[in-house]
């Protein structure tokens, strides 16, 4: 299985909280970082998700927001690191953040946001991702 | 009503499963393909959705992921076909997949994903869409 | 706290409807416009959201759809104004809509949608945003 999502983080299911239509699933990465996802109840069944199972958190780069000095925000995933590369486009730029331990998150954001945030390689920044933007996959 | 969403699939509501805040609505396309959407409960009321009603599943191209040999994934919509066109940009490319029966799905994904997946016209690939990324409209 | 999201609308929490995993939160802007968001229950707690509190509705430009003559659509947020600028890219264009009272919404949509909708400065158009695409922040 190969996917276009730039961000594919391998971890272990560490918690499952069932709702009526949606279920919150937490994926723990080596090192303790947690990725919160909200998927449909049907998906939990199809993927046979259960605590301890290996799973991938897939995040499309267009769903990643970049922030600096993030405090109170509803998005459940705020992953902080250093900008490791910026690839320039005409309307959008592609910004990667090195989270350490070999993890990188890539975001596609508008050029004007790159400018207004003063993003450049080495700047400390956070990748912000809504739980509903995370897709889960299993082998 | 005219919309910027590149993907506007006309079908029939075939199932509605109510939750507390969200409701899962399935749109069946001619030929049997099903599109699963999750919308707010308020939207079901506003649109007067009910089984048998004609509705459009609207999917923004930036919310479409492309995959190859897709197996176990939480996204409820996996639509497989052949790449019919690739329009190149600077950071993003626009990739269309012909699903047959006149249906095409367009995705905007990063150039590096197009390269790493080896996408080119004629390659068999899947358009992957989270149920929460599908918007519904009625006439 | 600084963010890459192009759309950051400051308002007041006017309603909170709790679900099992998700909660619907309405932000009222000065002038009466309402932004509907769906966030996880955990986020409501973390942000200590309550009616009357000042909050920001954050919307990534890639999650904004542009429509003309919008009627029945499941997306809870339909904000109508006039196109105030179009910045051209290679695959995507950046389109801003002036909502009046100093509010502007920016969308990134494909060039072909800009063409097919006939968008140009001055055209009346709506920014359409799913409740699940809105992120909330507080100071």
Molecular structure report:
Three copies of one chain form a homotrimer. With 139 residues, chain A is mostly beta strands. Helix content of chain A is 9%, strand content 55%. The first copy, chain A, has two helices and eleven strands; from the N terminus they run ββββαβββββαββ. Chain A has helices at 41-46, 111-117, and strands at 2-3, 7-18, 22-28, 34-40, 54-59, 65-68, 77-88, 92-100, 103-110, 124-129, 134-137. In chain A, strands 4-3-2-5-11 form a five-stranded antiparallel beta sheet. A five-stranded antiparallel beta sheet of chain A has the order 6-10-7-8-9. In chain A, strand 3 (22-28) and strand 4 form a beta hairpin. The longest helix of chain A has 7 residues, at 111-117. The N and C termini of chain A lie close together (8 Å). At the A-B interface, strand 1, strand 4, helix 1, strand 8 and strand 11 of A face strand 3, strand 6, strand 9 and helix 2 of B.
Largest interface: A-B, 39 and 40 residues
Largest sheet of chain A: 5 strands, antiparallel
Question: Looking at the structure, what is the overall shape of chain A?
Answer: elongated
Strand content of chain A: over 45%
Distance between the termini of chain A: 8 Å
Quaternary form: homotrimer
> Care to count the β-strands of chain A?
11
In spatial order, strands of the major sheet of chain A run 4-3-2-5-11
Low-pLDDT runs of 5+ residues of chain A are: none
| Series of secondary-structure elements of chain A, N-terminal to C-terminal | EEEEHEEEEEHEE
Number of helical segments with 4 or more residues of chain A: 2
Give the rounded overall mean pLDDT of chain A. Answer: 92
What percent of the residues of chain A sit in helical stretches (DSSP H or I)?
Answer: under 10%
The value of Rg of chain A in angstroms is 15 Å
- Counting helices, strands and paired strands, the structural category of chain A is mainly beta
């Amino acid at each position: 299985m190969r996917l276009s999502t730039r961000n594919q983080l391998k971890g272990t299911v560490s918690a499952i909280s069932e709702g009526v239509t949606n279920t919150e699933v937490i994926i723990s990465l080596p090192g303790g970082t947690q990725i919160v996802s909200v998927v449909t109840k049907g998906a939990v069944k199809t993927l046979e998700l259960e605590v301890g199972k290996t799973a991938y958190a897939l995040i499309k780069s267009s769903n990643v927001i970049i922030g600096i000095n993030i405090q109170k925000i509803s998005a459940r995933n705020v992953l902080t690191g250093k900008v490791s590369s910026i690839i320039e486009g005409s309307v959008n730029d592609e910004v990667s953040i090195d989270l350490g331990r070999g993890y990188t998150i890539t975001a596609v954001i508008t050029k004007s946001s790159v400018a207004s945030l003063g993003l450049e390689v080495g700047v400390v920044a956070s990748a912000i991702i809504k739980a509903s933007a995370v897709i889960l996959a299993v082998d």
